[in-house]
UniProtKB/TrEMBL annotation:
Residues 810-1100 form the Autotransporter domain. SMART domains: Autotransporter. Residues 1-24 form the signal peptide. It comes from Alcaligenes aquatilis. It holds the Pfam family Autotransporter. Keywords: Signal. InterPro entries: Autotransporte_beta (IPR005546), Autotransporte_beta_dom_sf (IPR036709), Pectin_lyase_fold/virulence (IPR011050). It comes from the Bacteria. This is Autotransporter domain-containing protein.
């Protein structure tokens, strides 16, 4: 068609019937999205002369000025056309005159162009300009817009694809009229006066427009110049060669139109009658200059809920010669009926040439539409993404009836621009949506799923449609079949839905029967409904919103409940006269302000969350399942009446500091159960909770059949009273789980003090809500005790014993004079005792320095010695502690015949010492963690004597018994740990005494070497026995609750042991001796108890 028109017209078009004139009009230039000037709009007021001089004898002058609202709306309509139509190369803006009139109408038309060389053809000047085949005359308009006294809307301009105000949509009216000026205009006339109502005698003019050339009659025939037209009420006599419209089945067709319709209909329907099925109302004397797709803006129907053109109508503009990238504005359209389609056509941004989509990139066109379903009883699976971010973009618009739209899990439908609509269902009945994929409308005023017939673009006072509703001139009329039922039968949602203004909005004209929110659904944004209509029995037509029905394998809701359903919704649900919420299965968390007709929790389902429910007085809030406020702790307010059935249960969480609460501001009819689930906290013995703390009502009827409580605790008990609950604990609540008497003492003390020790709340809470078998408590009692300090005390005593042993193992002077000695020593042991004691491991490293003197001829030598050491103690599980001990000691000693190979010998020593200690304990049980720490300065005192007798073995050896007695005194002052207030300890001072006897045998042997050197070896064996009590008593209390005191009895020394030792030394010269020794203890409480030293003696 484009080629034929251009070939026919060439560049020799002549303008007809305009008289040039110059007046003081106002000018605005309309730009397209590329910034090109598309139109020059000249606005004429009453003083600006004629804006339409096509009738030079009677030019049209504006009787009144266009107001600012009108200028904005007209500008918006022109901008829309500027975006749709591609401008030709070398284009200068077409001139459009705008004026007013007093008629109750609006129109726009272009000057008619003719070419004497091509008779029987005409085209509008505006169309020719936009096709690049006419240069125009700046002194004459290419088109004229006239605005009359219509009741036009004054709302702000917006890009909605539905009329919104109820008045004639100003923008849509001008958009419609401009389409006529662009070429949707027929060349048919009759011989009647303009104001006649007589039956006409229509015929085609001799010059046919491109639109006329695309028309076909009932038999599919094209028109010819001057051809008469037959219709059911026309006066033309029958002529077999006439344009036959007696069945009023005319249509427009072309290659682009056929591509869009895809066989759904022969072409775009047109009508010669005012009302297609009612010939008694006569002929529409616009003669097929309107399209008659259902509710179309370009129709002459009394009800139109479009504000733009459908894809087929845009295709018609392509067929009459305009250059349009149709795919920039439409992804795909389904005009057929009973179609099953897996639609793989997506909607995205276009490439620079407008020839292909750019998958994954958002389309930015104004009022773009990804998928349009016009037909009926179709099942469409949208298998490709639809991505728009332009103003007024819509993902899917549905206008037929009984269609099923399926959105698979992998599909994204996004309408992210201003006034975007993910899904828009705008007409029909009994539609079904199965959404498993993602639908979003997160831009300004965006709605994820909109159910709205919209208003009438021609004014809703003329005619208004909705579910079970057709009103004309304010009167209810017979409802056509296409409106007899709910707009939506079922919306099965298991995917993602979001909207900035609302996730779901139901308009006041659209009845939605069921919204089924299924497992996997994620909703962001409010759910709102303005619907408020009643059936013939005056019962409200309700929308049932269910949470937790079970879905089948295809994502469709079944009648069964889904016990595995889980969802949290943080939006508001508002529709007090329409929305009835049902919690059908699983667990649903609602958090927001909800205005509902009613709400019901079914048996086996759970509703929780923080919400306020305002109910319609006609119904109530009914609980037959479980109702639990909060997502942890929370509140529910019910403004209306509440009914709990026999199977209903209210489950509230509570602790000593906070609790759930339900407040019924109305009548509460009670039955079923009220159950308190006590949460981890510190509960004083005898703590109580009253019923009115968790449930209140303005008025009650009946009472709960059962007041129950759950308390997951190995130590606490809860009992229901007449109006609440009481928590208690037995005296052995903790001690019963102790692994030892020492641990039991801690448990008994804690239980005794549990009525008033808030400072230990964290410890009580952790134990009270630990594992049911009490194993955590057994661990806790050990760690909370002072056992680690008992292990440290035992280690300190053993260290002092080790120091004394080092001096006993040092050889005396065999000559008169001075001897100095230095020896490094180390030892380790692992103490493994019974369940009431504390296993631990110790490592000690140190150095001893000394000097002694023997007078000439004397058997005695006297000396002094000092030592420094560091000890590390690791306390085994369950106590988990580490201690570092640094010691210093200073002492005196005396030896008797220490050198003697035969006869009596002896040693006496006395030493005092100081200890700098640090302790780091780890407490970790249940969910309680702490690391108490301490440091102190302790003191030690040691006194020891030893005697022995040697028998000579040859010249260089000896053997004989050895008897020793060692006394130790250790003092650690009272201390207070740092760390968490709930577990740090305050320990009383500790004074420990130990007396150990040793009886054994010593064997020595010397070997003379060359150069006056001598090798000396020794071996000893001895039985060691503790003579005083081997146990210590440690008293302690919790630092922040000193009334919670306890004591423990722990081992402090081995009761006995078999000691084995050996040494070897080299007398290097008369003055110098080097050596080393090793010792171990067997058959005692300690394991792996070994020590050794490296020594050096120097005579001077």
């Amino acid at each position: 068609m484009d080629f034929k028109i251009k070939a026919l017209l060439g560049h020799t078009l002549l303008a007809l019937s305009w008289a040039s004139s110059a007046h003081a009009y106002q000018t605005e230039f309309i730009l397209n999205k590329q910034g090109q000037q598309a139109f020059e709009l000249r606005i004429y007021g009453p003083d600006d002369g004629g804006y339409d001089t096509s009738d030079q004898s009677d030019p049209r002058v504006s009787p009144w000025n266009i107001d600012e609202n009108g200028r904005l709306k007209i500008r918006a309509a022109l901008e829309r056309w500027a975006e749709i139509i591609n401008l030709p190369v070398g284009y200068t803006p077409a001139v459009i005159n705008l004026g007013t009139m007093n008629d109750k109408n609006a129109n726009a038309y272009g000057a008619s162009l003719y070419n004497p060389d091509h008779p029987n053809f005409t085209i509008s000047a505006l169309q020719a300009r936009l096709q690049g085949i006419f240069q125009g005359d700046p002194n004459n308009p290419d088109a004229v817009i006239s605005v009359g006294k219509l009741d036009l809307d004054t709302a702000p301009v917006n890009p909605s694809q539905l009329p919104l105000t109820g008045k004639a949509d100003y923008n849509a009216v001008i958009f419609h009229e401009l389409a006529h000026a662009l070429g949707i205009s027929n060349t048919v006339t009759d011989n009647l006066p303009a104001d006649s109502f007589d039956p006409p005698d229509p015929f085609f003019q001799n010059d046919l427009s491109p639109w006329a050339l695309g028309l076909r009659d009932d038999q599919g025939r094209a028109p010819s110049p001057g051809q008469k037209i037959l219709c059911s009420v026309c006066t033309n006599p029958y002529d077999p060669d006439a344009f036959d419209l007696r069945q009023d089945k005319g249509y427009f067709t072309g290659d682009h139109v056929q591509e869009v319709l895809n066989g759904a209909m022969p072409g775009i329907p047109v009508s010669i009658l005012n009302f297609h099925d009612q010939p008694q109302y006569g002929v529409d004397r616009n003669y097929m200059s309107h399209t008659e797709l259902r509710n179309s803006l370009m129709s002459h129907q009394t009800y139109r809920n479009y504000v733009n053109l459908m894809e087929a109508e845009i295709a018609a503009l392509q067929d009459i010669g305009l250059s349009i990238d149709r795919r920039n504005f439409f992804g795909y359209s389904v005009y057929g009926d009973n179609v099953t389609l897996n639609n793989t056509n997506g909607y995205f941004a276009r490439n620079e040439d407008g020839t292909a989509y750019l998958p994954g990139q958002y389309n930015m066109a104004t009022q773009g539409l990804g998928l349009h379903i016009y037909g009926e009883r179709n099942t469409i699976t949208q298998a490709a993404d639809l991505l728009t971010a332009g103003p007024g973009g819509v993902g899917v618009r549905v206008d037929g009836s009984e269609n099923t739209l399926i959105i698979p899990e992998a599909t994204r439908i996004h309408a992210q621009g201003w006034y975007g609509r993910g899904l828009q269902f705008s007409y029909g009945r009994h539609h079904h949506i199965v959404q498993q994929g993602e639908v979003r409308a997160d831009g300004q005023d965006g709605v994820g799923a909109l159910f709205d017939f919209g208003q009438n673009a021609m004014g809703s006072d003329d005619e208004y449609h909705g579910s079970w509703m057709l009103m004309a001139k304010g009167q209810l009329r017979a409802v056509p079949e296409i409106l007899q039922g709910a707009l939506i039968s079922n919306y099965d949602l298991s995917g993602t839905l979001s909207g900035q203004k609302a996730a779901i909005h139901i308009a006041d004209n659209a009845w939605v029967q069921n919204i089924n929110i299924l497992q996997g659904a994620q909703i962001t944004g409010d759910i709102t409904s303005d619907y408020n209509r009643r059936d013939s029995d005056q019962q409200l037509l309700l929308t049932r919103i269910s949470f937790g029905q079970k879905a089948d394998e295809n994502g469709r809701a079944t009648n069964a409940a889904d016990p595995n359903f889980q969802m949290r919704y943080d939006g508001n649900i508002k529709g007090q006269n329409n929305l009835a919420v049902v919690i059908a299965g699983g667990a649903t968390s609602l958090n927001g302000q909800h205005e509902l007709y009613g709400l019901r929790v079914d048996q086996g389902a759970t509703l929780y969350g923080n919400s306020e429910f305002t109910l319609n007085p006609e119904y109530n809030f009914t609980n037959n399942g479980t109702l639990s406020p909060g997502n942890s702790y929370g509140n529910m307010t019910i403004k209306g009446n509440f009914v709990q059935g026999a199977d209903g249960r209210i489950l509230v969480e509570a602790s000593t500091t906070q609790n759930d609460h339900i407040d019924v501001q109305g009548l509460a009819q009670l039955d079923g159960e009220l159950n308190v689930d006590l949460q981890p906290d510190w509960y004083q013995n005898g703590w109580t909770l009253n019923q009115d703390k968790v449930f209140t009502a303005s008025q009650t009827q009946g009472q709960f059949a059962a007041l129950n409580a759950t308390l997951a605790s190995p130590t606490l008990n809860v009992e229901s009273t007449g109006n609440g609950w009481t928590v208690s604990r037995k005296q052995n609540a903790y001690a019963q789980y102790a692994a030892s008497p020492n641990a039991a003492a801690v448990g008994t003390s804690l239980a005794r003090a549990s009525a008033g020790n808030q400072s230990l709340a964290a410890v009580y809470q952790a134990m009270d809500f630990s594992r049911a078998d009490g194993s955590d408590i057994g661990l806790a009692l050990d760690q909370l005790s002072a056992g680690a300090y008992a292990a440290q005390t035992a280690a300190s005593l053993r260290r002092e014993q080790l120091v004394s042993e080092q001096l006993r193992q040092t050889d005396g002077i065999d000559k008169s004079g001075w001897q100095s000695f230095i020896q490094t020593y180390g030892g380790r042991y692992h103490w493994q005792l019974g369940s009431n004691d504390v296993d631990h491991r110790s490592q000690t490293y140190g150095v001893m320095l000394g000097a002694e003197h023997r007078a000439e001829g004397s058997d005695w030598s006297l000396g002094v010695h000092g030592n420094a050491n560091e000890q590390r103690v690791n306390v085994d599980a369950p106590f988990q502690a580490k201690s570092k001990l640094t010691g210093l000691g200073l002492g005196v000693h005396a030896r008797y015949r220490a050198y003697s190979q035969e006869g009596w010998n002896g040693l006496a020593q006395l030493r005092v010492g100081i200890e700098q200690g640090k302790m780091n304990r780890t407490i970790s049980f249940a969910d309680y963690q702490a690391r108490p720490a301490s440091d102190w300065t302790g003191h030690t005192f040691s006194l020891g004597v030893q005697t022995g007798y040697n028998w000579a073995l040859g010249e260089n050896g000896s053997i004989g018994p050895v008897l020793a007695l060692d006394y130790l005194h250790y003092r650690r002052p009272g201390l207070e740990e740092s760390g968490d207030a709930a577990s740090r300890l305050r320990l009383d001072s500790s004074r420990q005494h130990a007396l150990q006897a040793s009886l054994g045998l010593a064997l020595r042997q010397n070997w003379n070497l060359s150069q006056d050197r001598q090798l000396q070896t020794a071996f000893s064996i001895a039985w060691e026995q503790a003579l005083l009590s081997r146990h210590q008593t440690q008293e302690a209390a919790f630092a922040n609750a000193q009334s919670v005191g306890f004591e423990g009895r722990y081992a402090r020394v081995d009761r006995h042991a078999l000691s084995l030792g050996t040494s070897i030394s080299l007398q290097q010269s008369e003055r110098l001796r080097l050596g080393l020794s090793a010792n171990t203890r067997l058959l005692g409480d300690s394991r792996a108890d070994i020590n050794g030293k490296l020594f050096l003696n120097w005579m001077f």
